[in-house]
Amino acid sequence: MEDYPKTLMEFEKQFSDESACRAYIMRMKWPQGFQCPRCGHQQAWPVRGVLFQCTACDHQASVIKGTLFQGSHLPLTLWFRAMWWVTSQKNGTSALGLQRVLGLGSYKTAWAMLHKFRRAMVRTGRERLAGRIEVDETFVGGVEEGRRGRKIASKALVVIAAQEEGPGVGRIRMQRITDASAHTLQAFVKANIEPGSIVHSDGWEGYTGLHNYGYRHEVSKLNQAPGSAIKLLPRVHRVVSLLKRWLLGTHQGAVRKEQLDYYLDEFTFRFNRRTSRYRGKLFYRLMQQAVTTAPISFEQIARKV
Can you give the CATH number for the domain in which 194 is found? Predict the structure, then answer.
């Protein structure tokens, strides 16, 4: 049974102290009850903090070991509030915004928390898109420092797949790519779209040959008329417009090309759950994935971005 707060008042009541947060993580990590990682026994005594001692072999197991929270010196109540704020805001938040709302003394702490959350926003083994899927690429990037206008060298190439759902958009997938070659684009399609689906693209040769992998390929040739691409692939371009608006609005365009992958994951996580009745459902989904996300240090995050 899905257990999550539906309002801020419910959240504050449910997670008022460390013990409540530990108990929630424990239910997420061991939904069938405690299981000793050493002997498999299912009974334990609470020792201190996040530790439980197996009654059979005396092994002490940490509730947060192997989770996104491992290695953090911050209280779990602060982590939970951060996660609630991030998921309850329709467009998310920047590190500066999170620092302000939580009263954190360090911008670096807020920045690291957000990057850890983004790493938990991609569920391992998630289902591929199916049905009729629009696919196209776009450049995403910010204004060059000290220059007017934009420059391709500072931009990243992103491929987007948008599931057709009547006249609207269903689920999406995004990925930063190094080039628009057949090898790169078709690898993206195979990883994110179920064989047997209809892949709808423009006439770019990088998509030629998808039928060899079990896809039905529908091509709409672009012409020179203004807005041709938007009319032929409207769902992808609607998603692109929302993505760019989100990057400029929530993050002020201050996303480096090397960081973009994680922001694409966050946008996808939010977009694919945009119809959830309660924002608490996003909190629940992120928490589910946080307890199975390998811990990562600030230094590791900094090296990757």
Answer: 3.30.420.10
- 266 occurs within a structural domain: no
Whether residues 116 and 139 fall in one domain: no
The strand pair at 168-177 and 51-54 is best described as: unpaired
190-201 pLDDT per residue, tens: 999 999 999 999
d(CA 32, CA 42): 9
Confidence of residue 144 (pLDDT cuts 50, 70, 90): very low
Tell me which residue has tokens 């807005």.
Answer: 227
> Cα torsion at 123, 127, 132, 133 (round to 10°)?
30
If we measure between CA atoms, which residue out of 127, 42, 63 comes closest to residue 287?
63
Residues 91-114 have pLDDT tens digits of 999 999 999 999 999 999 999 999
Domain that holds residue 221: 132-255
3-state per-residue secondary structure call for 22-68: HHHHHHHHCCCCCCCCCCCCCCEEECCCCEEEECCCCCEEECCCCCC
**Single pTM value for the model:** 0.89
Say if residue 79 is in the same domain as residue 99.
yes
Q: Indicate if 52 and 147 belong to the same structural domain.
A: no
